[in-house]
Amino acid sequence: MRWNCKDKPMTKRTENDWTLPTKLVRGGTMRSEHGETSEAIFLTSGYAYDSAEQAAARMSGDEEGYVYSRYANPTVRMLEERLALLEGAETCRIAASGMGAISTALIAPCSAGDRVVAAKALFGSCRHICSTILPRYGVETEFVDGNDMAAWEKALSRPARLVLIESPSNPLLEAVDIAAVAELAHKAGALLVVDNVFATPVLQKPLELGADIAVYSATKHMDGQGRVLAGAILGRSEFIEEFIDPWLRHTGPAASPFNAWVVLKGLETLDLRVRAASATAASLADALVEHPSVARVHYPGRSDHPHHAIHQKQMEGGGTLIAFSIKGARAEAFRVLNALKLVDISNNLGDTKSLACHPCSTTHRALSEEEQAEMGLDESWIRLSVGLEGVDDLKRDLMQALDAI
Question: With a threshold of 0.90, does the pTM exceed it?
């Protein structure tokens, strides 16, 4: 049997009617003549042709089929099909990492003279692309307070090419009203790009809220066990084929078929893991609020979150991330992190293991103090990614670490 990059899954044509757990397990599955139950890994860089004429036809696009794994690969294509079905997108492309996906989505559609509007609260590398890389190529970037609709209205009162937001944002879990910003972006002629990695497609669907492009670091919850790197770009076929495909093919941030296979297997338990970790995170957030050494807790599921109403409108749950501020600064935050016995210190997130980090000195280290302050970040904050350990074990570990100060 031969596959090509436009093959549809070899399953009954009822995928769109499936519930989320079924989509995560069955979506996009293609089987070879061997009838394997687990998705096959096609660890190949190239493909052989029956004739020179067929090779020429494949390369010219006159005949469908695989030509090189930098362009497309059967295992990678299965992951793309599954994620598109999960997200409700027309199509998906996989990149080598989350930043490979996000940088492609931001840079590929832009030309000199274009304008990008972005929320101030972004992951450090995303902010670097907007503030440093895009301007080098003549693309203007304007940052706004993501929760200030008046600021959005002003910034989008003139034409723009792209709008970038995170919701919940990294690291303080701020909310941006996706539907409201989408409306303003479209009036300005812009496409709305939403980094949905913190919410995951289990808890939030940006495209259903009006976004044009959803991007993910599949390294996080989708793999979910700290094994591989991958990223995803989802949106309309026309946009993907015109801007994303040429960029991926000619610049080369291709995903490894093995990594794609690992993420495919991770997706099978995504719903279970995200919901279980979210329930634990909600319980831990309640406990953190009560500790005398904690100044503030940001958790989307709590009513005291400053943007709780927006999170509640957009998300099906509170998520797996908590941000909490220590009474003190770097020294006290480091003391808490160093006292943890069960939770690991790591700048990663979305793992089955609970992970904690100090954003000012890790994920957002490259930002100036002024840029950190613009997003409300200071040395007192700790970001906690909640995993699948027992809630009582995690609670004891956090409490004893906080007691250290």
Answer: yes
